[in-house]
Amino acid sequence: MNKDKKQIGFWGAAAIGIGGMVGGGIFAVLGLSVQLAHGGAPIAFALGGIVALLTAYSYSRLSVTFPSQGGTVTFLDRAFGPTIPVGAMNILLWLSYIVMLSLYASAFGSYGAAFASQSSHVLVKHILIVAGVVLISGLNLMSAEVIGKAETWIVGIKITILLFFIAVGISQVQVAQISPSAWAPPVQIIAGGMIIFLAYEGFELIANTADDVKNPHRLLPRAFMFSVLFVIFLYILIAAVATGTLSVDKIVAAQDYALAVAAEPTLGKAGFILIACAALLSTSSAMNATFYGAARLSYIIAKEGELPEVLEKKVWNRPAEGLLITAAATLLVANLFDVSSISTMGSAGFLLIFAAVNAANLKLRKDTGSNLLVPISGVVSCLGALLVLLWQTYRTKPAELFTLAIMLGLSWLVEWLYRRFKRGALRFVHKPARKPPEPEAQS
């Protein structure tokens, strides 16, 4: 038997991060970014990427020092202890996953309904949302491994299609449409980058591989940085081609399936079909992976005593209750809220969580060996981006702030009530940090 069970190398870890980010997000949120930033959409994606890059540094240092399948939950508990604020943050993470699933489900329904007649578009969209959530959550409950084995191929296919879209369309870009004169005001550009922050969220999945990566101290930080930089570059080019070949009005009019419409000027109807099919493939695979992660996240939180023990129960070695509750909540959010509301809720939730992860790295920097300025910059950038997003939401759609407040308040209320009526439930135990290898003596 091979004593070294660590089989994931640099490219494997990087592929997990890239696949997590280039899921359903870019297909769902391109129209939102263009609506806010106009010709400055490439800049908006770059700004969102910078925030992700700073946070990826904290994740890489924490993952190497405290390897665990719990990822974010473990890092926050390790830094701040199993307190009410940390428990509420962990529940907020679970709710944010539900919001992200809702975004993917909504995009799946929108791109599928794009093939239907205009009169039946809305009905078909909601039917596809329900069908997608039910079928994929069912696969996770019964045989998620079938789709899991295909994830690598799916990532390769969707990246290839997007690179083809860029290669064909870049020669048709009208520079005037993405020049500074076509940009929205700075606050709107920043808000455009933050409302689509969900499109960058998936890099954190690399943290869950820390125990299985060869030479993690050297490879994990590189995998985090490479995957985020690659996706930033990819998103900037996609946004530049889309806004440079199609007017802002046309992109906004087809907001729910904007990327497919953006392929039409250079590829015609075949381009629309190609991108729409890629979106259906990507959003379904993204839902599969996120259902898998969200169900296990609820299981881990319950194991630490921050959610009821019923979520620890497994059926066929799967956390069934957590999966079913997650699926039911996804159906409600995806069918009751529009894409803008979903993206605002999710992006705000992840910005707050990522600020906390940067703060955790700052507090544990003696263990992680982190540079002092990077986690400080991460905290400031996440909170600053969150404030800009909230300000823009207040100016344009103030009712969405009420929804955000409910999401945050629910996290705190659930945690407080559970602790109030289940004293002594916390079972988190600190594990020693993994120290970096000692340098070899010089001969």
Description:
The chain has 443 residues and is mainly alpha-helical. It is globular, with a radius of gyration of 21 Å. It starts with 9 loop residues before the first helix and ends in a 22-residue tail after the last helix. α4 runs antiparallel to α5, α6 packs across α12 and α11 crosses α12. It contains 16 helices and no strands. The C terminus is likely disordered.
What would you report as the Rg, rounded to the nearest angstrom? 21 Å
Mean pLDDT figure: 82
Helix run count: 16
> Helix-strand pattern, N to C?
HHHHHHHHHHHHHHHH
Distance between the termini: 34 Å
Which structural class is indicated by helix and strand composition? Answer: mainly alpha
Tell how many strands the DSSP assignment holds: 0
Which regions contain 5 or more consecutive residues with pLDDT less than 50? Answer: 308-318, 424-429, 439-443
Largest sheet: none
What is the percentage of strand-forming residues? under 5%
What is the 3D shape?
globular
Percent helix, as a range, is over 70%
Labels describing this entry:
443 residues, mainly alpha, 16 helices, disordered C terminus
